[in-house]
Amino acid sequence: MHPSRAGLAEVLAVPDYRRLLRVRCVGQAGDGVFQTALFSAVFFNPESATSAAQAASAFAVLLLPYSLVGPFAGVLLDRWSRQRVLVLANLLRALLVLGFAGLVTADGATSVVVQSLSLVVISVSRFVLSCLSAAQPHVVAPDRLVVAQSASTTLGGGFAIAGGGLAVALSSLLGDGDRGAARTAVVALVLYAAAAALAARLPRALLGPDHPPAEHWRSAAGAVLRGVGEGARHVAAIGPAARGLAAVTAHRFAFGLAFVATLLLYTDEGAIGRGVGGIVAVVVASGAGGLAAAVLTPLAVRRLGAARWVTLLLALAAVVQAAALTFAHPAYVVAAVLLGLSAQGTKITVDALLQETVDDDHRGRVFSFYDTAFNVSFVAAAGVAALLLPDDGRSPLVVGLCVAAYALTALAHGTATRAARRREELSRSG
Questions:
Q1: What is the pTM of this model?
Q2: Pairwise CA distance, residues 358 & 238, whole Å
């Protein structure tokens, strides 16, 4: 059997891993349904147009709040039963989506109350994903974490894309606009409730934390900033993990800038203008690239090493991003496959590095901080997009910035990796 397939078969043979994977997949399918319903109502609503500034502010509203509370959420993940977190957080999402469905019908998707509720749903979803990442080393052997992360991240992303596709398909039956979004959101509610039911079947102590601190979480929350600083120093001392975290954060900035531009290109007023169906085709193509990353990454890491693989993926993204200069739908679909491979392969590799090198007592805080850096980078990209992008999304300057960001990150990561390797060799020879 092929080495990567053999490793995947061993991981999937672990019952607890499969149970945790089901929770992830069903929950992320709910994310796909809910976020597609929300984005359809906000960005592709025939009753309103979307400007670059509106797109950027929407991403800031949806992502920035969790970026501020993420480190505090990590404190909770290192103190509370992660199994109970998965149950209760999924139930909370179901209740919040029920409120969203009622309010969006009455007030519209762009109302302050509905947008506030939406950001809470998305923040809880990020919290759930941090919990799943912190829990995974409890159900997989350390030498199988790369394979496990490849499978869980990619399958979860695939189910999110499938949920988005389901939401688009349902729009023909349930309608578009605010009322259609409300009806579609009910499907997400059902999926979130199902994820809670699946999580409830896991043993309460299975997912850790193994050694929760004796201090009360309120006291710990007061020391979050100090703890984040200590965590940052801890990760900085782990060279490969620190370099990987920096690379994936920079990658996220370039990806976010390109995503906002692409979103504007596909609105009714955009330079491509194919609407929600066109953007879903791009997202599905990106998901196909993510599936390829799941297959290739374990093998590539084994043969090339994690650092070389990340550098190669960043360089690939720089080359492929240049295809966006055509501003043509077929080129965007093809580019999305390879950019999806780059983004997912980088994230899988860095996730596994953190899971391998960070001890369980700090893992929740590290992954919440990781999530926060991920979100802040995307929001920063949206801010730059608001300043540079025209409302139709067509900007050679922005495409050039994305290419440069990927290329410079690849160069910096490769250079830092080689320098660290030389230091290690000198240390051993001395």
A1: 0.73
A2: 9
